[in-house]
Specification:
Rossmann fold, seven-stranded mixed sheet, two-stranded antiparallel sheet, elongated
Length: about 280
């Protein structure tokens, strides 16, 4: 079987399974299997795919057709222009989370002590460390997730110190100048409508935020108020309906709330400064 035929058959199977972007998915999986760029597939459509690799490719296509996320199959996901290792132990970094980086760099680029709360793959912590050129702390309650984050920090030679704890409980009061987080924010009812790739394959601890999706925000705001120094910043990603309730949580003891929209114009990131001491 040549590459062109393999791609054509794989695309048809993925389309029949209802997979989005079936042709692109087929190309990504074949290029990953061959360890070649996608451009190689276009330049060498007549190249024969050995029987052993053909069987492996069929297995990969079957996994994706069954709903397993593409990123878990390839083990990779791009974030802020860098490639990160992902496994089923971590939530897959999304493009919209890059707005968290933009907001953090805009309000607290000079922060000397920053922590990523609930770091998952470590994409936010690693990116901030590399962009700010300083050490960043990162926490997670999941030890397997911390192992993935550690590998990503190693791969990118980022100064990230990982801490196993619930939210920021391991840190002293007034010890940080920046707290960033993409917390779990999907409510129980909303979770029923999630794509099967998320609902059945990604770790629920990383996206379920209690009955109304706001449970972790309530704890996070309180925890950030404790660990931030006066004038320090909290930067959080927002769920689709979280702007008003989270803003209300920041009415006392916080100032200068700012909102960053995503490419669709929806409020995606909220930043607020811990009330500074009176001079």
């Amino acid at each position: 079987m040549d590459l062109a035929t393999a791609l054509r058959q794989a695309s048809r199977r993925l389309e029949q399974a209802g997979v989005a972007a079936p042709r692109l998915t087929a190309e990504v999986l074949l290029s990953a299997l061959l360890d070649r760029p996608r451009s190689y597939l276009f330049a060498h459509p007549e190249e024969t795919l050995p029987d052993g690799l053909a069987a492996s490719y069929e297995a990969l296509i079957a996994e994706r057709a069954a709903g397993r996320p593409l990123q878990y199959i390839t083990g990779r996901q791009e974030f802020y222009g860098r490639e990160f290792l992902v496994t089923p132990d971590v939530f897959i970094p999304r493009p919209e989370t890059e707005h968290v980086i933009e907001a953090a760099l805009a309000v607290a680029f000079e922060a000397r002590r920053a922590v990523d709360v609930g770091c998952g793959s470590g994409a936010i912590a690693v990116t901030l460390s590399l962009e700010m050129k300083r050490k960043v702390w990162a926490t997670d309650i999941s030890l397997p997730a911390l192992a993935v984050a550690a590998e990503n920090a190693r791969r990118h030679a980022a100064q990230v110190e990982l801490v196993a704890c619930d939210l920021a409980s391991a840190f002293a009061a007034a010890s940080m100048e920046l707290v960033v987080s993409n917390p779990p924010y999907i409510g129980e009812e909303e979770a029923q409508a999630l794509p099967r790739e998320v609902r059945e394959h990604e770790p629920s601890i990383a996206f379920l935020g209690g009955p109304d999706g706001l449970a972790v925000y309530r704890r996070l705001v309180s925890e950030a108020a404790r660990v931030l120094r006066p004038g320090g910043w909290l930067v959080v990603e927002l769920g689709w309906n979280a702007l008003e309730p989270v803003t209300a949580m920041l009415e006392t003891g916080w100032e200068e709330p700012r909102v960053w929209p995503d490419l669709a114009g929806r409020p995606r990131v909220l930043a607020a400064r811990r009330l500074r001491e009176a001079s």
